[in-house]
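Weekly modeling sync, notes
Attendees: AB, CL, MP (scribe)

Item 1: holo prediction request
CL wants a bound-state model with protoporphyrin IX containing FE before deciding which constructs to order. AB pointed out that an apo prediction alone won't tell us much about the pocket. Agreed to run with the ligand included and paste results into these notes for async review.

Input as submitted:
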Amino acid sequence: MPNTPKNGTLYRGREGMWSWVAHRISGIAIFFFLLVHVLDTAMVRVSPEAYNAVMSIYKNPIMGLGEAALVAAIVYHAFNGIRIILVDFWSGGTKNHKTLLWGVLILWAIAMAGFLFRHLPIIFGGH
Amino acid sequence: MATPLKAKVAAPRSNDNIVQGVKYNRSSSKRNNFEMVAWLFMRLSGVALVILIFGHLFVNLMTGEGVHRIDFGFVGGKLANPFWQVWDMLLLWLAMLHGTNGIRTIIDDYAQKDKTRAFLKVILFLASAFIILVGTLVIFTFDPCPTGAAAELLPSFCPAP
Ligand code: HEM
């Protein structure tokens, strides 16, 4: 039978595990985007027309929402990465790891609210 | 043979090279500490990447008209500036090395057969080396004012043809 919080595991199925799952998935997603992103930017070396053609693919609401998801993944990975570093190096890190995770989620929500406030009107505004 | 335990010592110390006649290679100079360096690199590059990525996202998506203003003229203007060349190069190298090492860990975690692991890592390292090379060449061999291009597509500082 798998361990559940009820029979006493500290990690499995709890905050520690889920924050790790999200860190791993966001890391993979960012990495694959980065591969594509270096190649699309490489079009500046081909010609202005080639670069502008690739960029026009990004300038519609669907891709705009994709960018928002990507930024959400990056901001989570960044703040949670800082949390991992604090747990590793700060003497109070392990004791306060749950508080730190709440801090990560709150900072993430604030950063995303600020970002979306600016980004959503841009992608739906139809410039 | 069971691991010999050192009586009355609370925790092993990093300089315990010989415990009850058994030699351990902790902290000896011959030790391969690649994994420790990689672990440390993930943390140091992580801290640097927070600054590099947040700056990158802010300038490209939050100023002006955000993503709608990104075109050759805009990127040409940025990459003509040594400050952004260095910024983008650090971002490229640190993010690629950090991401590649992270994926390496994940491959080691899930791919169980030796051959599968080796195969996936060869693909990973080749892809990463290619992307780092292409990205670096673009940053440093890029011409913001290519001859023969329509002037309205170029940054405003380019001389009129
Ligand atoms: C924004 C700043 C970033 C911070 C603070 C950060 C921090 C971290 C930390 C602390 C780890 C854990 C390493 C370990 O357990 O040894 C990690 C893992 C990872 N990071 Fe990042 N990172 C950042 C950006 C990135 C970027 C841009 C990418 C992709 C190119 C990326 C991809 C990964 C991957 C794939 C892993 C492995 C995940 C795993 O083993 O579960 N990270 N990151």
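Recorded for review: The mean pLDDT of chain A is 89.
Action items: CL to compare against the apo run; MP to circulate these notes.
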